[in-house]
Amino acid sequence: MELSIIELNIDRSSELFDSEECQMLLKTYDAYYQEIGFNVPWVGYL
Known about the structure:
Elements lengths: L19 H17 L10
């Protein structure tokens, strides 16, 4: 299994992110990262 870090500027057009659930997750992390910051490895993974 390959993990991908969910970054603020990730390419959302990838097949990996096709599902509606995944798009909702990405939007959630956009707001979350603005609130708490972005410090690897303490980020979201997919």
